[in-house]
Write a structure and sequence with these properties.
Layout (H helix, E strand, L loop, with lengths): L1 H13 L4 H21 L5 H22 L5 H7 L2 E6 L2 E6 L2
Antiparallel strand pairs: 1-2
Length: 96
Amino acid sequence: FATATVLARELGVAHPEARWIVNPLLFGGATFVGFSRVYDRQHWPSDVVAGAALGAITGFEVVAHAHGDRSPIGRRLFSHLSLGPSRGGLAIGWSR
């Protein structure tokens, strides 16, 4: 979904007349991958839905950052995010 979101946004700007063909193909392909993961019993449906949401938000943020924009989603969610070392790994924190 991250790839589909990035391609849909970029191709929508470059070729707005093809948006009605490209977007269903991109997101249909991403949805098919999600369904196949559930069908093969590799993921629960909730995993796929959460991954699709995270991928779409990430793709949206990548395009916004590449264009020099600061989207409201990133400002609200990621301004409170902190990363730091932990015992043998990386700690991720979020505070309000």
